[in-house]
Amino acid sequence: EKMKNIQLTVAPVKRQPLSQIRMVPGRLQYDDRKHVSVKAPADGVLVEVCVKTGDKVKEGQVLAVLNSPEIGTARADLLQRTAEYELAQKQFGWKNEIQSNVQKLVDALLSKQPMAEIEKEFANEKLGAYRSQLLPAYSRYLLAEMINSKSAPLAKSGAISLQSLKRRETEMQDARADLKSLCEQSIYDVKLERDREQARVNDAEHRMTISRQNLEALMGSSVDPGSKDLKAAEKLSRLEVIAPFSGTIEDRTFSKSERVNRSDALFTLAQTDTLWVAADIRESDWAAISLTGSQELQVKVNSYPDET
């Protein structure tokens, strides 16, 4: 009877793992990467507050709408810089095309192509002011050359004096020198103009980039300069505050029509799908506890004593 009452059991000795149990204090806490304070990116007035405490939101959902003159000014500046960049690109394209065509025209003039062929070839090509400079100079040179070529036989026959022949030769040489000088100057000028426009394009692009980065810094998100919302006048000062990830609104600080300052916390957003367990392990227990990456841990909380 006594042996039954003490419930003594006997078993063969065998070797097996021995699990030591340590009870340590701990707590459940948010994933620090998914528990953030959504702040106002700029000074302004809340014209809409779209959520309340306890609401579940999705990533990208609008939480509030802010009317901010600072955002409007930054957007207007970006639009201006974008327009200047596009204009500089068009101007560079024009100068680049003129430079290419002027180079071709100069090559044709120096190779002494007939005037009729040159006029036909470049009738529809863009030459800018260089058309009215180069073609008349070439015509004067051709005329002087023709007069000089016809004067030589007349001088031999005595129809004109030798002095007149020399004068006409000098006029032809002057016309040829003027044409060559004008061609060289035109090539230099047109390249210089093209390079200046290229520098303006680069400067306009840099200023547009700085303006876009400034707006992105204010908004806290990327900006598409070509978007319709950016160009809409009624939306210049409108800024939508969006959820950076899906979660639950844990706290709301401001209401509609309230004025907010930059960095004011508008909402606290938390994602509770995943929580962290933080346990405080005493130094005296460090030697007894060894964890591996694949090891499964059991956690119990006071709120649910029957669940593991």
Brief overview, please?
The chain is α+β, with helices and mostly antiparallel strands.
Topology:
Blueprint: H1 2-5, E1 26-30, E2 35-39, E3 44-49, E4 56-57, E5 62-67, H2 69-110, H3 115-121, H4 131-157, H5 162-219, H6 228-231, E6 238-242, E7 247-252, E8 259-260, E9 265-270, E10 275-279
Antiparallel strand pairs: 1-10, 2-9, 3-5, 3-8, 4-7, 5-6, 7-9
Helix pairs in contact: 2-5, 4-5
Walkthrough of the structure:
It is elongated, with a radius of gyration of 42 Å. It has a four-stranded antiparallel sheet with strand order 2-9-7-4, with no helix packed on it. Strands 6-5-3-8 form a four-stranded antiparallel sheet. It starts with a helix and ends in a 29-residue tail after the last strand. Helix 2 (69-110) runs antiparallel to helix 5 (162-219). It has helices spanning 2-5, 69-110, 115-121, 131-157, 162-219, 228-231, and strands spanning 26-30, 35-39, 44-49, 56-57, 62-67, 238-242, 247-252, 259-260, 265-270, 275-279. The protein has six helices and ten strands. Helix content is 46%, strand content 16%. It is α+β, with helices and mostly antiparallel strands and 308 residues long.
Please give the largest β-sheet: 4 strands, antiparallel
- Given as residue ranges, the uncertain stretches (5+ residues, pLDDT < 50) are none
What series of H and E elements makes up the topology?
A: HEEEEEHHHHHEEEEE
Assign an overall shape: elongated
